[in-house]
Amino acid sequence: MLVSVEDLCPFSLLERLSDAELAKLVPLTRKESRERGVFICKEGEKAEALYLLVRGKVALEKMIQLSPRSRPRPATTEVLEAGDSFGWSTVVEPHMYTKSAISLGQVELLRIEGEGLRRLLEEDHHIGYELMANLVRVVASRLKDATDTLSYFVSIISHELRAPIAAVDNYLQVMLGGYTGPLSSQQQMMVERCCVRLQELSDMLNSILDLARMRPEQIEGDFTQISPQEVFVLSMEDVLLSAKEKSIALHTDVPEDLPPIIGAPNRLRQVFTNLLSNAIKFTPEGGQVTLRAQDEADHLRVEVVDTGPGIAPEHMPHIFEAFYRPPDTEEKGLGLGLSIVKRIVEAHRGVITAESPYPPEGEGGTRMVVLLPKDPLAHPLQEVSELAYGSIASLRSVVKQPDMPEAQSSKSKAQNPS
To answer: Cys-Cys with 339: which of 101, 322, 354, 418 at CB 3.0–4.6 Å?
Structure first.
């Protein structure tokens, strides 16, 4: 069916284009309709069209796989209504749909042909700039809405699950303390293992909650003067049972005269507990894990060293990415621990690095090195790592201000003096 400029005007994605520019899109656009439950586009397929939703609702779905051994499942990430657009991968390399779109009833669409659209954006830089700038704003707005919804949902689920877990753990701790009578050695071992598994589940919930809600400004709000030794003691206590279960020796090499530093005590405890837990998890039975600290001018240097098999070179660039787990790992977890550690360290204006094998001449072992400024507020907050937080920078990188005629440039400045 024929399309007019008036059909394209209502969509925010095209709102900054003139009628003359919209007229260039008309030959590339056609009207389509879909019945309920029909795939309009599928995740992983070549992106051949950009869609504008005229009437009805469309669900966006993404296949989610929580672990290498679990079955991928479709999850609805968003429901679009009239005025929305989808299929943006058509104009962003590698031109593959990242989500599936399914009609939730009778829907009417405007389909803009992808190859012709990309050619138009290359030929008319102003249309390309305005369209991509609008696209970035739409993506940023949806990302914020999705993040807010995720934070709300996760906080509710986490609260509902953490309360019963804490109750069970408290009862088990009462039993371990001997307040309900003596335990046999076998009973003691079984209760301790239950405590370890509950701690793992609690850590998983906390990690998911942190991923959704943790921001540098929130961490900075908890800054106070703290004793590093006290943080290390609490972190070592957090992992004692896990180390005992695998007969792993825990060692510390911490000077007694370490000066106080500025930081968020609970978050730094989380950093070193996570690093120690990770080292214990990947160290075989009978191995050892060491925590070292050293005062260095205006920084505190902390190392966590293990005698595990080490990290393969091909995995090293990815270990701080959220949800990253090596395909061949058999250990449980979501792959969030090191990503969260990196967030916290960077919020303290610090740096974390990994070395493996360690020592370098060995065949295994890993050393995690954390450098923390003694007064992070004296340092500018670094830009948060894309690996840990994710970003739409790759999308923004294609948005470049075109060369505009002088008259048009002057008009733009008059409309927007700022």
So the answer is: 322
